[in-house]
UniProtKB/TrEMBL annotation:
One Gene Ontology cellular component: cytosol
Organism: Oxylabes madagascariensis (white-throated Oxylabes)
InterPro entries: TAP46-like (IPR007304)
Record field: compositional bias (Acidic residues): 37-46
One GO process term, biological-process aspect: regulation of dephosphorylation
Name of the protein described by the UniProt record: IGB1B protein
Region annotation (Disordered) ranges: 1-72
Compositional bias annotation for Basic and acidic residues: 47-62
C-alpha cells in the first residue's frame, strides 16, 4: 500500500483529508500562497535580526543605565 493509497482509503472513510498538492503553475491561488509564505519567511528573518540586535544592546546596557540626573 502506498502513501497515496492510504490517504485515499482514509478519505473514503471520512477520517482524514488528503494533503493539498499544487502542481507548478496550476493556479493563481497556489502562487499567491507561495509568495505569501516567502514574504513571511523574510519577515521572520527581519524579526529575528531585530531581536538579536535588541538582545545584544541589552547585554551592553544593564538595567538602570541612562538618565541618572536628579537621583541624589
Amino acid at each position: 500500500m502506498t502513501v497515496d493509497d492510504w490517504y485515499e482509503q482514509r478519505r473514503r472513510q471520512g477520517i482524514a483529508s488528503t494533503p493539498q498538492r499544487v502542481p507548478a503553475g496550476a493556479s493563481d491561488e497556489g502562487l499567491q500562497k507561495q509568495q505569501q509564505e516567502t514574504e513571511e519567511e523574510e519577515d521572520d528573518e527581519e524579526a529575528l535580526r531585530k531581536a538579536r540586535e535588541w538582545d545584544d544592546w541589552k547585554d551592553t546596557h544593564p538595567r538602570g543605565y541612562g538618565n541618572r540626573h536628579n537621583m541624589g
